[in-house]
Amino acid sequence: MGRVRNDDVEGIALNRRPLRVLFFVRDLPLLQRIYAPLLVELTEGGHEIHVAFGKRLHRDKIEQTLAAISQERLSYGAAPHRTPTDGWRSVGWLVRALADLARYAHPRYDGAPRLRQRVTNSVLRRLEKAPALEPLGRALALRVARRLASRTDAELSVRVIAAAARLEEAIPASPAINRYIRERSPDVVLVTPVVKYASDEVEYLKSARLGIPAASCVASWDNLTTKGLLKFTPERVFVWNQIQQTEATTWHGIPPERVVATGAQRFDKWFEQRPSCSREQFMATIGLDPEQPYVAYVCSSPFVVNDSDDEMHFVIRLLEALRASGNGSASSGSWSGRTREVRRGSASTWRASGTQWSSRPEARLLPLPRRSPASTTRSSIVPPSSGSTRLR
After folding, report:
1. What is the 3-state secondary structure (H, E, C) of the chain?
2. Best mean pLDDT range from 7-16, 127-136, 188-197
3. C-alpha–C-alpha distance, residues 98 and 123, integer Å
4. How many Å from the N-terminal Cα to the C-terminal Cα in the chain?
5. pTM recorded for the entire structure
6. pLDDT bucket at 388, cuts 50 / 70 / 90
């Protein structure tokens, strides 16, 4: 895995000069929801940031998202990838896909069939329809993949992950990505999310072995338990908290001295949020009595609840239990007031249950407001090149 350069990292930490940061980010929503506060803090501190997006994006959406950040210190462009003619591209995908499949072949995931099925579908479907892969290697990989998908096996899981790690180390860095990083000449390289199944974002970390400190940024609370393996050990792995520090070390093999808990960047904004209206005004808009106590239930996504109506029935039982708890006041621990549910997402079971909820005057379903998409044109798509744009 990557070489340790703690002296480089510590030297940068002690040097207070403005830094040039090269930040590889998969897509715009990731930057918008999670890392915008980080960009603001870094640019306000005098640091220069170039954001390299892994996906093709609409330029007007990017500029709209980044408009509040210092225009003088922030630029963006498309991140380079291995080209289809680069033979290591398909080899790299194959090695990383098998490593992720092997992760979910461990018995610790016996109780998570949906996660196992998701990665199995992702890997097997592509393997079965991958003409770019060398036939003999593809046949061998299919055999291993089907065995991993058929059942959980701790020994096989560990063995395949270890073999994939050795193969990953043998895959050379991409000359195109090496050239891109040299031209940018950053002081530090950051990469996120890295944990997508068979992600090629590990290529950016490997290319940073040119002598530039690099770090993986864990984007969300479940990224180390429900996604792919990190697959490469950079100088630092930035996580949210102590729980993720343990996960990075135990499940991803990252040395503990390289894992740093920074807090959850995406929630920084809530420390500055203020109510946009009073409780009385809000209750009036949804037709509820502000003098009564309420319970707000924020629902899960369709994937988490297996696209079933189990959660809806749980909420109904919860509502009935609260209503049956007595006629005391809220301060005494019982609920005489109405209960409202705040619905998140657009699961069909909730949409189809309108008649059930209309017969319950004590409940309200509140869909999240939808934003109108920004207008886009074909010419506004950021091209797949290493060029950059500075915000105007």
Report:
1. CCCCCHHHHHHHHHCCCCCEEEEEECCHHHHHHHHHHHHHHHHHCCCEEEEEECCCCEHHHHHHHHCCCCCCCEEEEECCCCCCCCHHHHHHHHHHHHHHHHHCCCHHHCCCHHHHHHHHHHHHHHHHCCCCCCHHHHHHHHHHHHHHHHCCCHHHHHHHHHHHHHHHHHCCCCHHHHHHHHHHCCCEEEEECCCCCCCCCHHHHHHHHHCCCEEEECCCCCCCCCCCCCCCCCCEEEECCHHHHHHHHHHHCCCHHHEEECCCHHHHHHHCCCCCCCHHHHHHHCCCCCCCCCCEEECCCCCCCCCCCHHHHHHHHHHHHHHCCCCCCHHHCCCCCCCEEECCCCCHHHHCCHHHHHCCCCCCECCCCCCCCCCCCHHHECCCCCCEEECC
2. 188-197
3. 8
4. 40
5. 0.78
6. low
Structure tokens at 115: 């996660």
Tell me: pLDDT of 370 over 90.
no
- Res. 351: pLDDT tops 70: no
CB burial readout 85-111, b (16+ within 10 A) else e: eeeebbbbbbbbbbbbbbbbbbeebee
Q: What does CATH list as the number for 6-81+174-268?
A: 3.40.50.2000
Let me know: does 318 contact 300? Beta carbons within 8 Å: no
Instruction: Output phi, psi for 50, to 5 deg.
Output: -115, 120
pLDDT at 390: 60
Q: Can you give the pLDDT at residue 208?
A: 87
pLDDT tier, 18 (very low <50, low <70, confident <90, very high otherwise): very high
Closest CA to 100 of 236, 27, 170, 202: 202
Q: Which residues contact 44 (CB under 8 A, 6 or more apart)?
A: 70
Domain ranges in the chain? 6-81+174-268, 87-170, 279-358
